[in-house]
Structures are given as C-alpha cells and as structure tokens.
Design a protein that fits this description.
113 residues
C-alpha cells in the first residue's frame, strides 16, 4: 500500500505512474485481505477470542477502509466526477493513518513498544 501511495505522490509526472499505482493498489488490497485471514487463523489457534482487543477492531476498520479506498479508486474511472476522485484521495489518506495506528497498536500489544 505504501508503494502505491508513494507512486501517486512522487511519480505523477511520469507517464507510467497511474498503471503502477493501480497495480500496487491491487496487490496491497490482496495483501491486506491475506493478512486478515492470517490474523483470524492465528487467533483461532491461540485463544479463539476474536476481536477481544482494540487492535483487532482497529484492524477491521483498516480493512474496511482499504476496501472503500480501492473501490473508490476503481470507480473514479467509471464515474468521472471530481467527487469520486476526491473520495478516493481522502479515503487513501484516512486508510494510511489507520494503517499506521494499527501497526503501532499491534507493537504495543506485542510488548515491543
């Protein structure tokens, strides 16, 4: 996901930026979904108590935000309005913030921070 954001921010003057941004977004969304499935499996093997900590709820919000951002990104090519484009941009910013918060909360939960 970070590679997609970086491409959108710093490579816009290149002719290929949008194609690369879309690919990174697709791969990022797939990785997030695979990570969610992995987390569900790991929790079921350990305690079996899903969504027992704030980190899990924040993760769910992040996953939903990723799906919203990805969908808005795809839809801006079908519905060519400034509103959909703006939604994709702001959803991307919010998703990035949620991802950072979730990573930090996971590090706290693991006792690393």
């Amino acid at each position: 996901m970070t590679a997609g954001i970086t491409t959108a921010l710093f490579m816009r003057r290149k002719r290929w930026w949008l194609r690369v941004h879309r690919r990174f977004g697709s791969v990022g969304a797939i990785c997030v979904l695979l990570g969610f499935m992995t987390a569900l499996f790991m929790v079921s093997r350990q305690t079996g108590r899903h969504f027992a900590v704030p980190h899990a709820w924040l993760g769910l919000a992040t996953i939903l935000s990723v799906l919203c951002t990805y969908t808005a990104g795809l839809m801006q090519f079908k519905i060519k309005t400034a509103r959909v484009r703006s939604l994709h941009r702001w959803a991307g910013r919010g998703t990035f913030a949620l991802m950072i918060l979730n990573i930090v909360s996971g590090l706290f939960l693991a006792g690393i921070l």
